[in-house]
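does this look right to u?? thymidine-5'-diphosphate version
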Amino acid sequence: MTDSKNTPKGRFIVFEGLDGSGKSTQIDLLCSRLKKDGRNVVKTAEPTSLITGGIIRDALAGNYPRTPEELSALFLADRIAHNVNPKNGIIKLLSEGTDVVCDRYYYSSFAYQGMDCDLDWVIAMNKNCPSVTKPDVCFFIDVPAHVCRERVDKRGGFKEIFEREENTLDRIRDKYSEVFGKLDGEYIVRISAEGSPQQIAESIYNSLPSVSR
Ligand code: TYD
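got this back:
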């Protein structure tokens, strides 16, 4: 039998950044490094692959347009499901000592939905929700919008609603700055994406909070 008091809590590590910022590469590098350290690690993302995530993807693809308020509420519902899922939810994984590395979280709602609806309302409903775990750290991969745009264009294929307009990425980057200036009690590390992917990975690893009990 395991004594939950003696099980070190896993770390909840979030990555944020514009579409095309190179988050995925850094997430994979960090997960490999933590596994090499002998940690149990689960990589996850929002929107999720749960039913709520499917509804959101339909909206992001433009198949079923939603108002900014509807989108904010859908992202929150998806985030709650992501936390409380009894099989592999964030809350369960952390309590078992697993490190959870998540591609986007509530900071994305603040930056993306906060552009088109009341930012304070979006912040309040996420931060006041008891089922929404606060991250131990958020790494913001900060890359100029024009670089992200070139990558998104080069990637080709289908573009989601936030990837279509020329100046949207600039607006989202500005919104992230505004949001990070507003949030209290959050550990946010801005990572300037200068240097090789390995150098960036090193500075991310060195900024990790230690394992807590
Ligand atoms: P996706 O293609 O899944 O991931 P990424 O662009 O990070 O590779 O796109 C997710 C989109 O959803 C992205 O444009 C940001 C947006 N989003 C929000 O608008 N609000 C949110 O709360 C989250 C989690 C994502």
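The longest strand covers residues 12-17. idk if thats expected tbh
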